[in-house]
Amino acid sequence: MSEIKHNTSGTEAGAGFVLHKTVVLVGMMGAGKTAVGRALAARLGVPFLDSDAEIESAANMTIPEIFERDGEPFFRGKESQVIGRLLDEEKGILSTGGGAFLAERNRTMISERGVSVWLRADLEVLWNRVKHKDTRPLLRTVDPYATLRNLYEQRVPIYAQADLIAESDGETSIDNMVNRVLDALATRPDVLEQK
Ligand SMILES: Nc1ncnc2c1ncn2[C@@H]1O[C@H](COP(=O)(O)OP(=O)(O)O)[C@@H](O)[C@H]1O
Ligand SMILES: O=C(O)C1=C[C@@H](OP(=O)(O)O)[C@@H](O)[C@H](O)C1
Ligand SMILES: [Mg+2]
């Protein structure tokens, strides 16, 4: 991977790309924001940022511990702060938590300083990816599938406000998702320029 160079005009990445704005991945729990974001950043040779991981390392607690001890409103406050800071600090790939795009102030920050990409997947695909993991406090309910379905129905119209979309189905590998995000970004040379 070639050396990463930060400057005012963009982050010079490997493979002949220059990233002019942070690419912000949004969408439901299980959409692949963290996994695809990490792979996309590696492919481009740019920094990978994950708001949940930043919150966890700053608090030295896991997301479930933060929800349990301090509550969701406290977590949402931290999430906004962290997203604002990461958007200011460096250009890269920013994976958000599934609830981040719901707050209008977060959507405003993201649209002013980055470009949003909705990783869209059907409810059943999401469920298959999250059902075995206990790391998502919002799904610690008596009927986590119904909870996920309710969140899905409430949130889809908001994710649909993202600038770009990349679709994943049960068959789409993480590498294929990286290609789909790159295809979506090909329409935006103001964000990702290929030299
Ligand atoms: N396109 C995909 N193909 C296969 N597995 C995937 C894909 N996207 C995500 N996963 C897996 O699903 C799980 C949830 O993905 P994750 O990146 O944590 O989602 P999010 O950050 O959007 O909640 C992880 O185990 C991840 O490896
Ligand atoms: O959808 C949500 O509200 C949440 C999604 C999680 O992130 P992922 O979408 O990366 O799982 C994490 O931020 C927290 O558990 C809340
Ligand atoms: Mg994640």
TrEMBL record:
Binding annotation for substrate: 52, 76, 98, 155
Listed cofactors: Mg(2+)
Source domain of life: Bacteria
Enzyme class: transferase
A GO term from the CC aspect: cytosol
Main location, first listed in the record: cytoplasm
Oligomeric and partner information: Monomer.
Function noted in UniProt: Catalyzes the specific phosphorylation of the 3-hydroxyl group of shikimic acid using ATP as a cosubstrate.
Family: Belongs to the shikimate kinase family.
Listed name of the protein: Shikimate kinase
Organism field: Ruegeria profundi
